[in-house]
Amino acid sequence: MHDIVEVMTQTAPLCLPPDVLSKGCPARHILEVLADKWTLLLLYALSDKAPCRTGELRRRVNGISEKMLIQTLRRMERFGLVERIAYPEVPPRVEYQLTELGASLSGPIRTLNRWVEDNVTAITGAQLQYQQRQQDGAN
Hints:
Blueprint: H1 4-10, H2 26-34, H3 37-48, E1 52-53, H4 54-60, H5 66-78, E2 82-87, E3 93-98, H6 100-103, H7 106-138
Antiparallel strand pairs: 1-3, 2-3
């Protein structure tokens, strides 16, 4: 994925006002980064307890690989959402915490997560109904 500087300089100048519905607007790229499953889950995990080491984040975000964790944290750092804190110790210790910008997303992400958890049964039911309609139409 390109970083925002590349998007801004290669595709179009910064669109004013920013518009996530506009293909060439950097706001859309930022939304794509934020809408990534791992980004959302890491923002949520860091909003509960920070700072966190990578091992703790990997345990909290079940299913994320070490490689994906590091890639996502680096992308989040590049976008100003997390701060990487490296301690001059042996063995080396690195922790991550939300920046003020990243913390400002905590409320909306918590609301989205609550909505998903509150509606998982209804959504699963809708998927089953859709599958049944597709099967009935095929016969």
